[in-house]
Design brief:
Length: about 500
Amino acid sequence: MAPSPVGRSPFPPIADYAFLSDRESNALVAPSGNVEWMCLPRPDSPSVFGAMLDRSAGGFRLGPADVMVPAGRSYLPGTLVLETTWQTKSGWVIVRDALTIGAWYSKERLSGWLRPPGDFEAQHCLLRTLRCVNGYVEVGLNCEPAFDYGLVDARWAYAGEGYESAIAKGRDGDPSLLLATSFRLGLEGRAAHAYSRLKEGETAFAALCWGDVGPPATWDEAADRMWRTGDYWRTWLHHGEFPDHPWNVYLERSALTLKGLIYVPTGALLAAATTSLPETPGGPRNWDYRYSWIRDSTFALWGLYTLGFEYEANNFFYFIADACGDDPSLQPMYGVGGEKELDERTLDHLTGYEGARPVRIGNGAYRQEQHDVWGSVMDSVYLHTKSRDALPEQVWPFLKRQVQNAVAHWHEPDRGIWEVRGEPKHFTSSKVMCWVACDRGARLATWPRSGRRWPTRSRKMSSSTAWTPGAFSSSTTTPRHWMPRSCCCRSCDSSRQTTRASATPFGPSPTS
């Protein structure tokens, strides 16, 4: 049930959430300083903080006890470190938040880690630091985990002889959370609380950890970890190629977001860090996007290669190759660990963001036939091959299979890029991507093999009105059952279909 329009919503606007990442997990922080979404240990795991989908599903707030609206809020330039400035009646305080990253520390091989480890590793720690810069501020800490999407209340116990650390546990299999802070904690039900006054020049920290790396013991150690995390992101940006342009900052922020959405153990790129945020206010079209879509691969690879981040592009390409290599049907999406079964169910105990229900986890679209995936994966391989000027022989059977599928099924209906849940229909975008599969296959064939057959097939497809310029006009010669001027679900604007079908990099590109 949608919320009443009378009164102010308890949920902040979706665009106002800040995004944190350590490349293995993500967190979303509301303007109030409350961490309202975090899933552990993977981004598709059950949430430990889920207030984004239900105000009672757990959160972690740190900030002034009597002020909820900050004076300023931004990322430190070139980083995924969030800085929030608070003004109260008595003073000013600055809070910094990050999921920390440090030098590689694991001594043994890690299960599920398929890509080259590199020099850095997530410390599995949500770190929050405070510094009072003027007057004094009454600070409040409220850490209230609710495991398994809010179903399981945390059970707290002190971790030492003092009041500065405590452990929260759920059921067997839920991650244990260690909260360490310079404040003195009180444990009340499923929550850990602290209240303290910070005076000008005084500092404090709170660290929530769930891995082998312990929390910082002092403010100096916390500040050092925060700085090293920021330095990691700034150093990573040095590998990119950004123009000296007023929009440079937006390109950098986009690159950081892409990097933050990569699950580094496998190279998978998440479509989003969240589930069940509604397409329309209060509506039912609420899907779980914490997976890796094949159709996203071309845009992601194209963007990463264009900006000079070849390492991430390579890892994403090999994730696609691992997930799809032995799959004759080629699913539209895969789990971040390469999982193929993403069974969908609803969480009826959650109210949803602003009353948008149902709340879903899993995504039943993984079973759908979406014909654009063949063109998407072929274009991904084409981009990767152009960047390397080489095509490994072992991937050829896989590529051949995708082109054969496109040739055999391009004229059949499917569920399209909109993943409609009704009966399959004819989508122009799917047919365009089948042509892309044949076209890219023919181009790739010039590396190790002959491409005599596939160019013929792609010319035959391209001669169809399904994607000639007339297909996007009001021409009466266009086959009606393909409905090229509008989405078959009737709710999408026709310009979206035209744009998606013809957008770079899916459009024909010149042979190098």
